[in-house]
């Protein structure tokens, strides 16, 4: 399988798991994903899509070389910053106030939505890279053994 196909599947898995995790967080802890009443219903999904782009790129690039754990940690940190950045820019555009660029990330930096998404991103990237490396290892043709002249390899 292509590493970019694996990266696409990993990104879709990331989105599905974030939806599941935030659903359970909302159900069990009675918290809302985005607590501001004037935020549009598209702010949370935009933040998740930003994280999915990070997961896609980290899995696609990390599948070739490097340590999967380190790549996963870098992807998790980047997804954290991207999700907070997208949320801050989106909410400041909604409110029309520049101060929300600092206030929004401060309110959600340790919130269950962002932290849960970052943990899911870490697990998805490490798993996607491990799967891509396993596919590359298994997909190689076996080492050829020297044959004698006239041997066409057919069993009789």
From TrEMBL:
Residues 136-156 are annotated as: Disordered. It comes from the Bacteria. The chain crosses the membrane at residues 42-61, 73-94, 106-130. Pfam families: DUF6121. The keyword Transport does not apply. Keywords: Membrane, Transmembrane, Transmembrane helix. Residues 139-156 have a biased composition (Low complexity). This is Divalent metal cation (Fe/Co/Zn/Cd) transporter. The lineage of its organism: Bacteria, Bacillati, Actinomycetota, Actinomycetes, Micrococcales.
């Amino acid at each position: 399988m292509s590493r970019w196909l694996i990266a696409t599947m990993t990104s879709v898995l990331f989105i599905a798991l974030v939806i599941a995790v935030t659903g359970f967080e909302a159900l069990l802890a009675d918290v809302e994903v985005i607590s501001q009443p004037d935020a549009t219903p598209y702010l949370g999904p935009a933040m998740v899509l930003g994280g999915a782009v990070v997961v896609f790129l980290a899995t696609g690039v990390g599948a070739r070389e490097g340590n999967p754990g380190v790549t996963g940690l870098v992807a998790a940190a980047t997804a954290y910053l991207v999700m907070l950045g997208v949320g801050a820019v989106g909410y400041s555009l909604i409110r029309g106030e520049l101060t929300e660029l600092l206030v929004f990330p401060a309110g959600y930096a340790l919130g269950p939505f962002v932290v849960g998404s970052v943990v899911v991103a870490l697990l998805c990237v490490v798993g996607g890279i491990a799967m891509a490396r396993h596919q590359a290892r298994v997909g190689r043709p076996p080492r050829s053994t020297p044959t004698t002249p006239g041997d066409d390899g057919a069993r009789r």
